[in-house]
Amino acid sequence: MGRRPRPKAVVHDGVLVVDKPAGPTSHDVVDVVRRAVGHTRVGHTGTLDPAATGVLVLCVGRATKLVRFLQAGRKTYAATVRLGIETTSQDADGEVIAQVDASHLDERTVCDALMRFQGTLEQIPPMVSAVKVDGQRLHERARRGEEVEREPRRIEVDSVVLDGFVPGEVAELSFLVTCSAGTYVRTIAHDLGALLGVGGSLSGLRRLANGPFVSDEAVDLAAVDAAGQAGTTRELLLDPAAAIRRALPAVEVEDPDLLWRLTQGGKLPAQGHDGPYAALTTTTDGTERLVGIYLDRPNGQAAAELVWTRPGELS
To answer: For the segment 233-271, what is each residue's pLDDT rounded down to a tens digit?
Structure first.
């Protein structure tokens, strides 16, 4: 028997936190969610490699407009590394290009080296990344066997903690790292191996947190698909106001006249925040609603980066 037809979808706006399994690409996960919600307007706030697992944050419907405000948060990963193995891709998917006996390494030596990857660093993106050079993504050029010069990029590693170490000819370590968006953990593994003189490659990666969204709240793809079959995907979505409140500072708008002007693109008095912040209002039924995203200007006013609530939605 074939699968039951899905109920006719009513598209809801919101944020979905998925626990990505190993195997599918981030785009594959987006496709699953598109089928479940019955809508093509789905985007994510930061890719995970096919072999990686963990938190993948997706925005559905109008919430795709929030992607740029949600993707800049810190990321936390649990990583495992093989020391003594260097590969073309800096992880287990690549071809081994060098193997060195790492049995002389001990936990103290590895921990001391790992601590040097904390703070503000310059990191060269790997050839298998999605970074563009001369208009072409590096991973596309890598598939053609090309190697091109890449400019280093500044990253921030807030903390890195050694979680375990197993010595051996191929030594294995695990660590937790919290870092800025755009950090390549596989490159930390590669550079750590180079620093220790034995080479290194990433053997496992799980994203535990993407900004304020954590693995404990993430739903697996089977649950997403089941909700799509039952027509209950709305129950899995975080409301846009709740999602953005986690990621950005927020101010409450109570003045009805000001609220009306904001829905038409009006300015807000500057609030003293360095970056973007959310304006929220409480509706008559007691729920919180996103009004828009604002950025302070030197003239003492805040201009809209995004107007979310439209005049006709105030009622």
So the answer is: 999 999 999 999 999 999 999 999 999 999 999 999 999
Fold category of 75-210 in CATH:
Pseudouridine synthase (3.30.2350)
pTM of the model: 0.90
Q: Which residue has the tokens 């596989």?
A: 186
Q: What is the CA radius of gyration of the chain?
A: 23
Separation CA 179–CA 166 (nearest Å):
25
Catalytic residue among 13, 49, 91, 191: 49
Q: Which helix (H) or strand (E) segment is 67 a member of?
A: helix 67-70
- As a whole number of angstroms, the distance between CA 254 and CA 259 comes to 7
Distance between CA 279 and CA 25 in Å, rounded? 35
Q: How many CB atoms lie within 10 A of CB 124?
A: 16
- For the chain, which residues make up each domain, given as ranges? 14-73+212-239, 75-210, 248-313
Concerning whether 49 is annotated as a catalytic residue, the answer is yes
What the block records as the tokens of 296 is 């302070």
Instruction: Please report the DSSP string for 106-136 in residue order.
Output: -HHHHHHHHGGG-EEEEEPPPTTS--EETTE
